[in-house]
């Protein structure tokens, strides 16, 4: 009698079909807010340029120190100074990953922090008193106060990506020394940003070919605003988990329909994909548990793996819109009314086929965690068009027609609010990402329900990559009309690579990824308490306030994607809760008797 065992084999290729509208278009790991998303960071840059710490281990929201470039921080007795020891990883050009690489990053961050998507005013590096190299393999950071050590590790040190000395230059033939001289950092940044913007030259660039991760770029092809990329193993990679595969291909898709057509062809066809995403409108039978998934319509060739990440789902409102609409957005009663017009439970049932779950505030409801406030286990503004209409009528609006009209201007009780003239209509524009049938269905239902309350919303589909560039954080001025109103890119915010769900990035005044430019002194004060305290009461107080203030419109949440993984491809599970991927762990098998 013989037994069969499965043994990993070297070789093979995996093609990853990118989410429609989102493929790698920014390679420089000093990424601005406009490009600060999963497609550029977690599914592209980190494969080649490792961050200081790697987050997510065995499917759990913890730090993976084995994959990290550094040892755990060591804190002084006063709790304000952390010393970090860097492991002796190698860059592909032979350089050692060391303290100098961290210092180069820090000098660029200090000089160009406004251009970095992970920067929030008042926080890292603003909250440092000093930092410096204390040995070839050690750097220290002294903070201006005693902060939560968990928050610093997960939300502050997570922004650091050591850079190679080879990148410390101001031109191809002009080495610089921003590693030691911060005054040179802006010129070095300008050079690296220019190299990034020359997308046609990525795969031959002497800059981007210097990597310390398990992968390096072999080919990159521009397809309009999208890009197709082929990565191959970095033979000089000195970390654990060296790649089994020969190549990893990232290909753009035009729409959910395009994604599904590729999957229908199967993984073994010439243009087949080994990992894609099942569109929600192609689900044939509902799931009882969004974490486990339901029956798979592509089960002949693929295994269904819900990619449940630690995230919230919402769309922003432009508080900085300089017209009367911006003034309306600042009125809490209006935001509460608008939120009450969104039928989250209906969308979860009818659109997302049971794979959804509510977003009840700024902390994810799943995976379950003690970080979630008890009050946030319930929707603060359940779907209720009658309540929405009553809120508007109680605050100076005639809802007998759509759009409703302001009939009681002013700032007193029962009046519409500051700067809202009589006769103003509740008429708005909503731009949303094209190519997602489920999003289109949710938006159309939302607009119809809002109209029943007196709020007219004109819907326009826009290519996702264009949407995130145009409808973003802005200040009105000659070069920035800042006129967008509502914008939905079919996403929200994933708490990764850090885990602690404080709100300094999303809701604090001036943050580059506070896309709607929400600003509230009380929110700022509550956020400030969460970053200095590990007391859950402070985190709960912050999220309860933000949930009820509706700084964004909370959308029904769902697994980030429903991964379809080709049968025979192993190592993809468990899913990283922060959206990072490790294709170096993936492999095919050969049978042995």
TrEMBL record:
Compartments it resides in: Cell envelope
InterPro entries (UniProt xref): SBP_5, SBP_5_dom
Keyword Transport (UniProt): yes
UniProtKB keywords: Signal, Transport
Stretches assigned to the Solute-binding protein family domain: 67-465
Record has Signal as a keyword: yes
Sequence similarity: Belongs to the bacterial solute-binding protein 5 family.
PANTHER family in the cross-refs: PERIPLASMIC BINDING COMPONENT OF ABC TRANSPORTER, PERIPLASMIC OLIGOPEPTIDE-BINDING PROTEIN-RELATED
Name by which UniProt lists this protein: ABC transporter substrate-binding protein
Phylogenetic placement of the source organism: Bacteria, Bacillati, Actinomycetota, Actinomycetes, Kitasatosporales
